[in-house]
Amino acid sequence: MARTEYWNDPAAPKPNTLIPASNLLVARGDGAILLQRRRDTGQWALPGGAQDIGESPAQCAVRECEEETGIVAEVTGLLGVYSPPGHVVAYSDGEIRQAFEVTYIGKPVGGTPTVNEEADGVRWVLPGELDELDIHVSMRLQIGHFLSGEYPHVM
């Protein structure tokens, strides 16, 4: 399903849903961050997705990370809660979400970076390489908070 993300865009459509989602910012000991390239937008992003009934936000983040990247990780902290009203995601099926993401910090404990139906690229990225990648502003904001040590962050 195609999606279009808006960031503080007055022309963005009005949201009709709010669905809890979780991301996991996984960092290795050398400072590299795990990113996936989304098939639906072509942009690099933290692994994450919608929370299922019966799981906690942290369990959702760990599950989504493994499903989308092949990396098994454990949560080590909370980066923040991100739900700015100006971050709107419109899907081709008519759903228009206001983003609501609980973003955790984690460390890898197993697995191998693996592409799948949601991600056509998975890689470890050093902070100095981030500017070379197409990363949505919402993900850049979260990664920036992590790199600056500015967390937990609520917006």
Question: Gist?
Answer:
With 155 residues, the protein is of the alpha+beta class.
Structural overview:
- This protein is an alpha+beta fold.
- It has a single domain, classed as Alpha-Beta Complex (Nucleoside Triphosphate Pyrophosphohydrolase), CATH 3.90.79.10.
- The chain is built from two helices and eleven strands.
- The strands form three sheets. It has a five-stranded mixed sheet with strand order 5-2-9-6-11, sandwiched between helices.
- Strand 7 and strand 8 form a beta hairpin.
- The protein is globular, with a radius of gyration of 15 Å.
- 30% of the residues are buried.
- The mean pLDDT is 96.
Helix-strand blueprint:
Blueprint: E1 3-7, E2 21-26, E3 33-38, E4 44-45, E5 48-50, H1 57-69, E6 71-82, E7 87-91, E8 96-98, E9 101-111, E10 119-125, H2 137-148, E11 153-154
Total number of helical segments? Answer: 2
For the record, the count of structural domains works out to: 1
- Determine the CATH topology: Nucleoside Triphosphate Pyrophosphohydrolase
Rg, nearest Å: 15 Å
Helix content: 10-25%
CATH class: Alpha Beta
User: How many extended strands?
Assistant: 11
- Given as residue ranges, the uncertain stretches (5+ residues, pLDDT < 50) are none
CATH architecture: Alpha-Beta Complex
Strand order of the largest sheet: 5-2-9-6-11
Distance between the termini: 27 Å
Q: How would you spell out the order of helices and strands? A: EEEEEHEEEEEHE
The biggest beta sheet is recorded as: 5 strands, mixed
The CATH superfamily name is: Nucleoside Triphosphate Pyrophosphohydrolase
- Tertiary shape: globular
| Proportion of residues in β-strands | 35-45%
Structural class: alpha+beta
Average residue pLDDT: 96
